[in-house]
């Protein structure tokens, strides 16, 4: 949360390689809400075990299956 504040971030991107780390994405989104930052940043998630449906369920703004496609999604999110 401190990095989002101090850098005035407009996007937070998270990637998971294992299903065991996916749950922390939801935790991070909830922490952004609790800190009053969720409406200030777009959240982009991706990684091998994720799906677009999972991204929606945890409240992410965008999903990408891999890093190369994430660039286009991130650009779209910050323009919106």
Protein architecture, described:
By secondary structure, the protein is of the alpha/beta class. Helices cover 51% and strands 16% of the residues. It is built from four helices and three strands, in the order H-E-H-E-H-E-H. It has a three-stranded parallel β-sheet, sandwiched between helices. Helix 2 links the parallel strand 1 (11-15) and strand 2 (42-46). The longest helix has 16 residues, at 19-34. The protein is globular, with a radius of gyration of 12 Å.
Summarize the structure.
The chain is α/β, with parallel strands linked by helices and 80 residues long. The chain has helices at residues 2-6, 19-34, 52-58, 67-79, and strands at residues 11-15, 42-46, 62-64. The mean pLDDT is 95.
Furnish the topology, listing elements before pairings.
Layout: H1 2-6, E1 11-15, H2 19-34, E2 42-46, H3 52-58, E3 62-64, H4 67-79
Parallel strand pairs: 1-2, 2-3
